[in-house]
Amino acid sequence: MNGLADSIVPGNSEDAQRSWLAALHDWVVTVDHKRLGIMYVVTALGFLVVAGLEASTMRLQLAWSNLHVVSPGTFNQLFTMHGTTMVFLVGIPLVFGFGNYLVPLMIGARDLAFPRLNAFGFWILLFGGVLLYFSVVGGEGLYGAGSSPAVGWFAYAPLTERAFSPGNATDYWTLAILVTGFGTIATAINLVVTILTMRGPGMTLGRMPIFVWEILTISALTLLILPPLSAAQIMLLLDRFLGAHFFDTQAGASAVMWQHFFWFFGHPEVYILILPAFGFASEIIPVFSRKVIFGYVTLVAASAGIGLVGMGTWAHHMFSVGMGSPLNSAFTASTMLVGVPTGVKIFNWLGTLYGGKIRFQTPMLFCSAFLFQFLCAGLTGIMLAVAPFDWQLTDSYFVVAHFHFTLIGGLVFTVFAAIYYWFPKATGRMLSERLGRWHFWLFVIGFNLTFLTMHVPGMLGMERRIYTYPADRGWDVWNLVTTLGVPLQILGVLLFVVNIVVSLRQGAPAGNDPWDAWTLEWATSSPPPPYNFAVVPVVSSRRPLWDLKHPDDPDGPHE
Amino acid sequence: MINTHSVDGPVVSGANAFMAGATETIHWLAQRLSHRLMRCRQPQFAAGASALASILLPVVGARADGPAQTPSIFAPVSTPAFAIRELAMFVLGITGIIFLVVAGLGAYGLIRFRRRRGDSGQEPPQVYGSRQIELAWTVVPVLIVAVLFLVTARYIFAIEQRVPSADTLEVTVIGHQWWWEFRYPRLGIVTANELRLPVSDPAHPTPTFLTLQSADVIHSFWIPQLAGKTDVIPNKTNRMWVEPQQTGTYVGQCAEYCGLQHAGMLLTATVLTRDDFARWVAAQQAPAPEEAQALRGRELFASLACSSCHTVKGTSANGVFGPDLTHLMSRSTLGSGVARNTPENLRRWVEDPASLKPGSLMPAMQLSHDDLDRVTAYLLTLR
Amino acid sequence: MTSVGKAESMGLDAVWRGRIGMIGLIVAEASLFAVFVVAYLFYLGKSLNGPYPKDALEVPLFNTVCLLTSSATVAAAVRALRRGQARRSGGWFLLTLALGVVFLVGTAREWYRLILGHGLTIGTNLFGTTFYALVGLHASHVSVGILILALLSIFAYSGALWPAHVERAELAAWYWHFVDGVWVVVFTVVYLVGR
């Protein structure tokens, strides 16, 4: 069985010409969850680079007051495309890509329930991404140079109505996201069915790895909260193309209704993005601390709690809209409440570390930084939950700093950890520890330099989504320092990409279980055969490989 | 609780006093430092040091006396902003303690339990959980949240449920792409972009209530030192109030993305003594001055498309699409803050607004050189 | 951990894969419709000009009876297939399809009357916007259901539909039941509550 590396690096095969084409064909027609998972992650990383370049350009423009690096219109397109890309073309494909790859392996299944639907999900995501970026040339339609949407990633009405956003730029946003949304719903259905009906022998729900529970939770959440976004987008398309008045305030419609529909999707969406990050941490921290996860049941209950309560917090994005004191209070309460299970998870991870023998290889470096960064993010979230404080902080750079702390400091850091951790499984080769350390230190310093600093201009009154600012506000130096963190992050990511490319060819052979881990995916070869397991193992605890390695003290009686 | 900013509970008073003391100390230190270094012979060192001072000053030293151009949310001058800062300090205190405790435990754990050299390789004792500990660290956060929520709810209602009295000053704020219209309905005044407010005496508070409406898309009214932001939404009327207790000029800008020139929709609020405010009101209520040498310009203004978008009280110009120009020269900026209101800038604006504010919805008027001079000369008389 | 020859999977049987899949789809679709219903309810009474629901709408009783009956006929189709009577089930599927077509024709006639008789289009006012969007969304789902029923009828009559396929046919029936269920909600909200 050739390693993954061999299937994409044709140098080892006899007929180089034919094997290139054959390999490409295999990837294009695949319905194998492992390949689709890799395709999701690679696509996401590609869009991460694009969105990162968009952000870097914005940071250049904002590095000092009154700069002219880009025009106002271009800046507005940049922040729209950056946000839209990061959420829908980076975050979603990352979490569902990892879900795709890992879930069958972790539960002892051979593939997802509906392999062809799985492939459909990936290709429609790619199509949606290409459609969004086609707006760069096609946006204005026949009567002008193309341009991307410039309405912000949450596209508030009535700015998105034809009267205020002529041309087709906004339609590209709407259609591209609508289309990728269908793929996400399809993948969510697939994962729910797989987890509920295709677990291997002995794999009760209570023995599934925490990561699988997170995927189950986010898939169920997706089914409930993604369609409202699709509905709002259909309404917007009806307004823009058929003269409907869903968000046409001149016809008596409510601009706030878009916000309710959008954020009813938008807030659980960020839980969809962060719960798998929690899943990564819950798999990696135990292995590198050499201890079982502390409080498995609590962690699962916390995820369910976050998913459930998180569906009732959406209007904390709308505290300044004028909903009235009772509603403002209610959403303050629900938002603070959802912080409790999140905090509990952090305590459980600390409980896992305590008494352990922590090995600080690259996955653990990223997870360690994640712990502090997510703590910070959660606490700034509590600040934002306090509605009157939010009246000052919302729509400022404080909020921008907060959500980058959750999404980069939380999700991206654990994704890096996950890639370093599972790359050996997927490819049969280890990533370089040395390059990994460089990647980590450059990125963590750059990230904190940028986003820790960014809280300050927010507190000094700097609004978000402004293409420049006056010189007399006192914001210049803070913006400069914020921008200085960007080259460090770029360098870190560059080294990461180099690491991947180099290790595909020259990485040390990984073997089945390079980290001495305990879940089922480490019981098969690296990379796994297409059918995952020659014989599906029978499990009798949450850590099947621990039981194998410690037959004198299996987990079962302790659980 | 929030009728004045000096009635605080003991904890919050203590925190406020500490912050005020720290602020004062750091401000004094920063000023001493920059004064000392200004006398330094090495200019680059002095420049660097004054850059450092300019870093420290805006954050902790933002003062409200004199023109405070850094709109820090921690430098309030108005009752709602004071209340928010009070609440913010409380929240920051609690979250700060939580951060120190949890991060401290985390750092300790990562260091104390790292694998040592020469480790036997034996697995440490496996601890699967602890019902008591997990219950404790669920219940305690719930209690903290309960306290935080109850305190917050009181502030929400106290700020939002304030009602005006019969003689409260009322201002209607109408957000446009990309400028602000201000109407004082009981005073018969219409102006733009630069708000004037009377100062409020804490002993006898006189708040100003703002009614917020939009002519097009969603905007948001935010002057951090006066109050939290409230959105300006078409087909919805929002209400907010401010109660500035210090004279001065306070800045802000639109805080909800509203299109191309969202960044160019700046705000200033100048708080005046009651006498100065009365004088300003009287001047604004007067119709536009009519000066003989501007006659030609006035005729041009009326006959060209200017009058279909702009109002000049006392003339036939009564357009409402653009700002009221009756007392244009009483404002210090043009284009909602993008340029200073100087004769050169005014001429440039009339000639081609996009040169000062790309995307501005006012078209270039394609005037001849002479007509441009005349119209500008006329506008300069609108004091 | 020991390994055995034949692995049995935990959790629900394989037949539940399709069922949970269809349930997942129904949950997502329900969420989609719910938002249009919320918009309809929120905008009730907020139109700035007529025509208004009480002037323009007539209760579509016949249409509703047809659609609800079609749920019974599709259930009969599944029962027939389970008993091995493929051709008979084809007949029931065809009847269901016909009732669905009658419903769509009825909707088309109603829209004709509203547009040409009352001047109500999607762009007339908030009522027009929310009405056509909600009823139209439902009608589009009925249309998809009709396509599925057509396929089932063709397969049944050409001998390609066997009793072994009854589980899959039942999933199609579940979809049809869902579409009917949505109509019950739409009917109540639009023609009873909103008029």
Q: Brief description of this entry?
A:
The complex is a heterotrimer of chains A (559), B (383) and C (195). Chain A has helices at 4-8, 16-29, 33-62, 72-107, 115-138, 169-197, 210-242, 255-289, 296-310, 325-353, 362-385, 387-393, 397-427, 433-459, 476-506, 544-549.
SSE inventory with pairings:
The complex is a heterotrimer of chains A (559), B (383) and C (195).
Chain A: H1 4-8, H2 16-29, H3 33-62, H4 72-107, H5 115-138, H6 169-197, H7 210-242, H8 255-289, H9 296-310, H10 325-353, H11 362-385, H12 387-393, H13 397-427, H14 433-459, H15 476-506, H16 544-549
Chain B: H1 10-38, H2 43-60, H3 79-112, H4 131-160, E1 169-176, E2 179-184, E3 189-192, E4 194-198, E5 208-214, E6 219-221, E7 230-232, E8 238-242, E9 248-253, E10 266-272, H5 274-285, H6 295-303, H7 306-309, E11 333-334, E12 339-340, H8 343-351, H9 353-356, H10 369-380
Parallel strand pairs in B: 1-5, 4-10
Antiparallel strand pairs in B: 1-2, 2-3, 5-8, 6-7, 9-10, 11-12
Chain C: H1 15-43, H2 53-56, H3 61-82, H4 86-118, H5 126-157, H6 166-193
